[in-house]
Amino acid sequence: MSTPKETKESAVADERQFCFMSVDMVGHTLLTANLPHRAIYDLMNAFHEWIERAVSKEKGEVWSWAGDGALCAFGPGFPDPTAKTLACVRAAMEILDSLPRFNERREETRKTPVRLRVACHLGYARDLPQRGKVFSDAVNFSSAPRARGHTREQHLYISGDLQGASSKGAEQISARREFLRR
Fold this sequence. Notes:
This protein has helices at 4-13, 28-32, 37-57, 81-105, 137-148, 160-163, 167-181; strands at 15-26, 61-66, 69-74, 115-127, 134-135, 156-158. By secondary structure, it is α+β, with helices and mostly antiparallel strands. The chain has one domain: Alpha-Beta Plaits (2-Layer Sandwich), CATH 3.30.70. Strands 1, 2, 3, 4, 5 and 6 form a 6-stranded mixed β-sheet that branches. A hairpin with a 2-residue loop joins strand 2 (61-66) and strand 3. Helix 3 packs antiparallel against helix 4. The termini are far apart.
């Protein structure tokens, strides 16, 4: 039988660093209020495929879906924090940059376009045996900015921890963030 100290140490040893991205569809209820069921189904399928494509292109994973939002992770397969940070931010920028095209291609989003909030955060998490299950304060933090109103629509929130991953990474992220503000 393990002692409490051994259990705590093994839990810490199981933790790995990830860069998390939270994508939240703003105004989902308003957007879908007047759409037929089939149009909502098609819209959400297209939304899921679009987000998964952008994340997998940068070697990340969509860990879970919560209705109109996604939790994505960029993890241990990267050589260092800078690489996973930049991959996460590139995926987030791809999503925000391609949003107008996503809206133009879909009949149901031409009158009421999809709007997004995206947040990225670097932190530690512990995988649980079930896919999509994770234990981490970092996951809560990456999802919280949308609830606290830190992230404006069509903007990317980048946590201080993520910016501090490395000076090179922070410089590249800051340059891209300025591009996003235009």
